């Protein structure tokens, strides 16, 4: 049995769960992290010494790091679908997963913390605007790519869509300046039609919002 540890409001857990949903894998998810705690126990640390979610146990195989989990699940259970069977599409899927994690994420996570996880009195409007502008510039790169294909690796959804696709739900929900991104917006609309995206990514994160009270 596949077990996933992680709270449903974690964007990294959402990546793993969206992959699980697309692959239709029998599983159980155990709430952990945030208000649920559970990451500081010796048993959890033995599985994942980083004490972070998501962490999975697939019949005794432990994997942590959300992108590695997505890759593991898709390469093992989604050959020919979520893991494309030709090298060019595999390369594209890996490229866009890494682009999200290594390039887009740096500004994105600071913007999310600056806007959502900081109370209004501590927000730095100028810094947030600068980060939003950098995120917008990065997304122009994705927009140009999606002008020629509906998904990052071609005609169908693959693991390459999971990291950046899951981020778009929060990006488009934020009160920030955004450039015109017609192809990214059309892509986001396609993702919103998917039951697994609705179930695991379109999750309220209001409980994460910091207030001054
Ligand atoms: N690079 C790691 C980051 C994992 C991470 O920082 N997860 C956060 C949740 S998004 C966490 O475990 N936070 C502690 C908590 O939720 O209590 C990954 O992609 O899995």
Structural class: alpha+beta
Helix-strand pattern, N to C?
Answer: EHEHEEHHHHHH
Residues in helices, as a percent range = 40-55%
Small ligands present: glutathione
Polypeptide structure, described:
This protein has two domains: 2-77, 3-Layer(aba) Sandwich (Glutaredoxin), CATH 3.40.30.10; 87-202, Up-down Bundle (Glutathione S-transferase Yfyf (Class Pi), Chain A, domain 2), CATH 1.20.1050. Helices cover 52% and strands 8% of the residues. The chain has eight helices and four strands. The chain has helices at residues 11-23, 42-47, 66-77, 87-115, 125-146, 161-171, 182-192, 195-200; strands at 2-5, 27-30, 55-58, 61-64. It is globular. Glutathione is lined by residues 10-12, 33-34, 39, 52-54, 65-66.
Task: Give the helices and strands, then pairings.
Blueprint: E1 2-5, H1 11-23, E2 27-30, H2 42-47, E3 55-58, E4 61-64, H3 66-77, H4 87-115, H5 125-146, H6 161-171, H7 182-192, H8 195-200
Parallel strand pairs: 1-2
Antiparallel strand pairs: 1-3, 3-4
The structure holds glutathione.
Keywords:
single chain; 213 residues; alpha+beta; Glutaredoxin; Glutathione S-transferase Yfyf (Class Pi), Chain A, domain 2; 2 domains; four-stranded mixed β-sheet; 8 helices; 52% helix; globular; binds glutathione
Summarize the structure.
By secondary structure, the protein is α+β, with helices and mostly antiparallel strands. It has eight helices and four strands, in the order βαβαββαααααα.
